[in-house]
C-alpha cells in the first residue's frame, strides 16, 4: 500500500461506517443546501453572465433590427419598420460590393494560408537542427495582437521609409516610392491578404502539424516496403489523412476572416476609396459611427445567419470526409 | 465533510464580503474633494488647457481631471459616451459638428439662462465661432456651448526655401513671377509642381501636403477648402436641404477635379490615408514645401527646432475662382447634461469666459474666440501666424452640424475618397452620388428635400 492510500484510509473507514441514506441526509442538512443546489450556485454566475452578455443582447438586437432606431437621433420616435431594414440592406448595391470584397479576401487569404501553413507543417514535421527555434520563430506572428500587426505593417509598407518597398525595389528595380501597397487600388486587396497570411499561416501550420503527427508511422513503413515514392506517399497517405485537419483549419480561418476588422481597419481603413472595405468595417461604421442601430442590427443578423449557415454546411461536409 | 463545510462557509463569507465592498466601497470616492472631468481630444492645445486649468483649481479648489482621446477615436469615444448618457465627462469640448445632435438629444445643458445670469454675452465672441460652436438651430439665440477653441484650416510653407535666391530665380524663370505664398489655388498648384521632386540640400522634396484620410473626417476637411472656393455649397440658402444642382454643380465638380489634380501632381508618395499627424510629420521632416493643416498645430510647428522660427511661414487658404473661404475647425465647451456636478462645471465656464483667462489661453497655445483678445491692436503681432488666423476666422465655412452629421460626413468621405484616391468614376458622378446619399439621410431624418 502506498503512502497516499494509507493517508486516505481513516477517512474512508469513517465514511464506510455510515449508511448511504444517512450520508445523503447529512449532506442535505449542511447549512440547509443540497448538493444539487450547491452545484447550481456554482454554475449560476456563468449562466447569468451568458444570459446577460450573449443571449440578452442577441434577443435585443433582433428586436432592434425591426425598428428605425438611430442613436444619434434618439429624440425621434422609435418606429417599427418591419422588414424594411433587411430589404434596404439586401437591395443596397454597396453592401453586395462589400460582401464580394469580403468573399474575395476570405477565399484568397484562406487559400494562401492553407498552402503556406501546410508547407510549413511538412517542413517542421521533419527533425532537423534548430527545429524548436524555427518553430517558435514561425509561430511568433500569430501570437501578436492584430492591432500591433496592423500598425507595424503600416510602417513596413510605408512607400518612403518602409523596408518592404525597398526589398521589392531590390529585386525588381522599381523605385521604392513609386508604389504604395496600401494606397493603390490594384495592390491594397493583395496587401491585406499578404499581411493576414503572414499572421495566420502559422496557425494553419499548427493544425496541419497535429494532422501530420496523427498519421501512424507503420503506414509509411508499409508504403516503404511497397516501394512507394515520396511523392506517392504524399498523395496517397499524407494528404488524404490530413484533409480533415485542413478542412478544420479552413473553417476556423474562414469564420475569423469573415469577421476581420481590426487589422484591415488599421492598414487601409477600408481604402483606397472602398477597395478594401470588408463588410465588418461597413457594419462598424453603420453601428458606431453613423449610429444606425436598427439598420446595423439587421446587417449583423444577416451576417450571422450567413456565417452560421455556411459553417453548418461546411461542418456536414467535414463530417462526411471524416467518415470516409 | 468538514472540509466541504469550510468551503461553504468561505464561499458565503466571500460573497458577503464582495457585496459589502460593492455597497460601501463607493463611499471612499464620494468622500474625496470636488473634482471635474473635462473631455477633449489629445493634442497640443489640450496640454495648454491643463496648464490653464491649474489657475481654476487654485481659485476654486476644484480639482481638474482630464480625459483626452486621440483625434482618430475622439468622435467615436465621446459620442458613444454621450449617447449612452455616461457620467465620465462633466465638461466636454465637443466638435462643432456635434452641436445639432447634442442639442436635439439634450446631451448638453442649454446655457442661455446661465449666460444671462453671469452676463456672458455671445456678442463678445467672434461671430463665426458663435454660429459654429454654440448655436443650434444655427443663427438662432439658443446657446449650448461657449466658444472655447477657435480653429480653421491654414497653410504653412518653408519660408527658408521660398527665400533662397537660386530657387527664386528658377521659379521666376519658369513662371515669370516671384515665388511668394500663394493667394489662389492655381498659384498654389504651380508652386507645388515647382517643388515636386526637386532636390534641396541633397534631399528630394515634394510640393504640398493635403488631407486624404479615409476613416474619420480627413479628406472631407481637406477637399472642402477647395470646393467652397470653386462654388460648392451644402444646400440652397433659400431652400434648406435642397442640394441638387448645388452640391453637385459643375463648379463644385471642377473643384473636386482640382483637388484630385493637386493630390496626383504634387503630394509625397504614400499619402493615401493621411491627416493631421502625417502632415506634421511630413513638414517637420523637411519633406514638403507647403502643408495644409489646422491652425491649432501652428504654435507647436513655430517652436520646432528644425523647421520652425525663421524657416516657417504661414498663409491663409488660397482663394478659388468662385470665392475665398476656409474650413472651420474648433470646438465649444459644454456642460454634459448627465453630469452630477453641473454647478461646478458652469463655474468653470464662467471662469474660462473671463478676458484675462482668454488672454492667457491664447498666450500659452490655445486659440481664443473672444473679441477682446483677437481684436486687440497688438494681436496680429502676438504670434507669427496671428494675422493669418484672424483673416481665416473671417472667411470660415463649416460642414453640416445636423444631428445626422456623422452619416453625412461618412458618405462624403466615401464618395470623395473613391474619386480622389481610388480613381473611381468622375467628379460629377461622385457628387451626384453624394447628393443621393445625403437626400436619403435627410429623408430618414424626416426632412423635406426639394429636388430643385
Describe it for me?
The complex is a heterodimer of chains A (324) and B (452). Chain A has 324 residues and is mostly helical. Chain A has 14 helices and no strands. In chain A, helix 9 crosses helix 11. With 452 residues, chain B is an alpha/beta fold. Helices cover 47% and strands 13% of the residues of chain B. Chain B has a 5-stranded mixed beta sheet with strand order 2-1-3-12-4, with helices on both faces. The radius of gyration of chain B is 25 Å and the shape is globular.
Counting H and I runs of at least 4 residues, what is the number of helices of chain B? 20
Stretches of chain A where pLDDT falls below 50 for ≥5 residues?
Answer: 1-17
- Gross geometry of chain A: globular
Helix content of chain B: 40-55%
Q: Largest interface, and how many residues on either side?
A: A-B, 41 and 42 residues
Sheet bearing the most strands of chain B, described? 5 strands, mixed
| Helix vs. strand class of chain B | alpha/beta
Low-confidence stretches of chain B: 1-31
Based on secondary structure, the structural category of chain A is: mainly alpha
Following the backbone from N to C, one meets helices and strands of chain A in this order, namely HHHHHHHHHHHHHH
Look at the structure and name the CATH superfamily of the largest domain in chain A.
MetI-like
The description of the largest β-sheet of chain A is: none
Number of strands of chain B: 13
Overall residue-averaged pLDDT value of chain A: 89
Give Rg of chain B in angstroms.
25 Å
Cα separation of the termini of chain A: 48 Å
Amino acid at each position: 500500500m502506498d503512502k497516499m492510500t494509507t493517508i486516505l484510509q481513516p477517512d474512508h473507514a469513517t465514511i464506510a461506517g455510515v449508511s448511504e441514506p444517512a450520508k445523503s441526509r447529512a449532506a442535505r442538512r449542511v447549512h440547509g443546501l443540497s448538493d444539487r443546489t450547491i452545484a447550481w450556485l456554482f454554475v449560476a454566475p456563468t449562466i447569468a453572465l451568458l444570459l446577460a452578455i450573449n443571449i440578452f443582447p442577441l434577443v435585443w438586437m433582433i428586436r432592434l433590427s425591426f425598428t428605425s432606431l438611430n442613436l444619434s437621433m434618439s429624440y425621434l420616435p422609435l418606429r417599427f419598420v418591419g422588414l424594411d431594414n433587411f430589404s434596404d440592406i439586401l437591395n443596397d448595391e454597396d453592401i453586395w460590393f462589400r460582401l464580394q470584397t469580403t468573399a474575395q479576401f476570405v477565399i484568397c487569404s484562406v487559400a494562401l494560408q492553407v498552402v503556406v501553413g501546410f508547407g510549413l507543417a511538412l517542413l517542421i514535421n521533419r527533425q532537423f537542427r534548430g527545429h524548436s527555434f524555427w518553430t517558435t520563430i514561425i509561430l511568433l506572428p500569430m501570437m501578436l495582437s492584430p492591432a500591433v500587426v496592423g500598425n507595424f505593417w503600416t510602417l513596413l509598407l510605408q512607400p518612403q521609409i518602409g523596408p518592404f518597398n525597398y526589398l521589392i525595389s531590390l529585386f525588381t528595380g522599381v523605385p521604392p516610392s513609386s508604389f504604395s501597397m496600401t494606397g493603390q487600388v490594384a495592390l491594397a486587396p493583395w496587401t491585406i491578404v499578404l499581411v493576414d497570411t503572414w499572421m495566420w499561416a502559422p496557425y494553419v501550420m499548427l493544425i496541419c502539424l497535429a494532422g501530420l503527427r496523427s498519421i501512424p508511422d507503420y503506414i509509411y513503413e508499409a508504403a516503404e516496403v511497397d516501394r512507394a515514392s515520396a511523392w506517392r506517399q504524399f498523395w496517397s497517405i499524407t494528404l488524404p489523412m490530413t484533409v480533415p485537419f485542413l478542412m478544420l483549419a479552413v473553417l476556423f480561418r474562414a469564420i475569423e476572416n469573415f469577421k476581420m476588422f481590426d487589422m484591415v481597419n488599421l492598414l487601409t481603413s477600408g481604402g483606397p476609396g472602398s477597395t478594401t472595405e470588408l463588410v465588418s468595417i461597413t457594419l462598424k461604421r453603420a453601428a458606431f459611427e453613423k449610429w444606425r442601430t436598427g439598420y446595423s442590427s439587421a446587417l449583423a443578423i444577416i451576417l450571422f445567419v450567413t456565417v452560421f449557415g455556411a459553417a453548418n454546411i461546411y461542418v456536414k461536409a467535414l463530417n462526411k470526409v471524416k467518415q470516409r | 465533510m468538514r472540509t466541504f463545510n469550510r468551503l461553504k462557509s468561505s464561499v458565503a463569507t466571500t460573497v458577503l464580503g464582495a457585496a459589502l465592498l460593492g455597497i460601501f466601497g463607493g463611499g471612499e470616492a464620494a468622500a474625496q474633494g470636488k473634482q471635474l472631468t473635462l473631455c477633449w481630444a489629445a493634442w497640443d492645445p489640450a496640454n495648454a488647457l491643463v496648464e490653464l486649468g491649474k489657475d481654476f483649481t487654485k481659485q476654486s479648489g476644484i480639482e481638474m481631471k482630464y480625459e483626452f482621446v486621440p483625434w482618430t477615436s475622439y468622435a467615436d469615444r465621446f459620442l458613444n459616451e454621450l449617447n449612452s448618457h455616461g457620467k465620465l465627462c462633466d465638461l466636454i469640448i465637443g466638435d462643432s459638428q456635434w452641436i445639432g445632435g447634442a442639442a436635439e438629444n439634450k446631451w448638453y445643458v442649454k446655457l442661455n439662462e446661465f449666460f444671462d445670469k453671469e452676463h456672458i454675452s455671445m456678442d463678445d465672441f467672434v461671430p463665426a465661432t458663435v454660429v459654429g460652436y454654440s448655436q443650434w438651430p444655427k443663427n438662432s439665440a439658443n446657446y449650448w456651448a461657449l466658444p472655447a477653441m477657435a480653429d480653421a484650416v491654414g497653410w504653412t510653407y518653408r519660408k527658408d526655401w521660398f527665400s533662397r535666391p537660386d530657387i527664386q530665380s528658377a521659379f521666376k524663370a519658369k513662371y515669370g513671377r516671384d515665388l511668394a505664398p500663394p493667394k489662389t489655388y492655381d498659384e498654389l498648384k504651380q508652386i507645388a509642381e515647382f517643388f515636386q521632386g526637386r532636390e534641396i540640400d541633397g534631399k528630394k522634396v515634394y510640393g504640398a501636403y493635403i488631407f486624404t484620410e479615409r476613416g474619420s473626417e480627413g479628406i472631407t476637411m481637406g477637399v472642402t477648402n477647395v470646393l467652397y472656393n470653386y462654388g460648392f455649397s451644402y444646400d440652397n440658402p433659400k431652400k434648406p436641404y435642397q442640394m441638387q444642382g448645388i452640391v453637385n454643380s459643375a463648379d463644385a465638380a471642377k473643384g473636386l477635379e482640382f483637388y484630385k489634380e493637386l493630390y496626383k501632381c504634387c503630394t509625397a508618395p504614400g499619402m493615401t490615408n493621411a491627416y493631421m499627424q502625417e502632415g506634421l510629420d511630413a513638414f517637420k521632416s523637411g519633406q514638403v514645401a507647403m502643408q495644409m493643416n489646422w491652425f491649432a498645430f501652428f504654435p507647436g510647428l513655430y517652436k520646432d527646432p528644425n523647421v520652425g522660427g525663421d524657416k516657417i511661414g504661414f498663409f491663409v487658404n488660397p482663394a478659388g475662382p468662385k470665392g475665398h473661404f476656409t474650413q472651420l475647425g474648433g470646438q465649444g465647451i459644454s456642460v454634459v447634461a448627465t453630469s452630477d456636478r453641473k454647478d461646478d462645471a458652469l463655474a468653470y465656464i464662467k471662469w474660462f469666459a473671463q478676458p484675462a483667462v482668454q488672454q492667457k489661453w491664447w498666450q500659452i497655445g490655445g486659440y481664443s474666440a473672444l473679441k477682446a483678445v483677437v481684436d486687440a491692436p497688438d494681436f496680429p503681432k502676438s504670434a507669427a501666424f496671428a494675422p493669418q488666423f484672424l483673416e481665416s476666422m473671417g472667411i470660415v465655412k463649416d460642414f453640416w452640424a445636423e444631428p445626422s452629421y456623422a452619416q453625412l460626413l461618412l458618405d462624403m468621405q466615401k464618395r470623395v475618397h473613391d474619386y480622389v484616391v481610388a480613381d473611381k468614376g468622375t467628379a460629377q458622378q461622385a457628387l451626384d452620388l453624394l447628393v443621393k446619399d445625403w437626400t436619403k439621410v435627410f429623408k430618414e431624418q424626416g426632412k423635406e428635400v426639394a429636388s430643385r
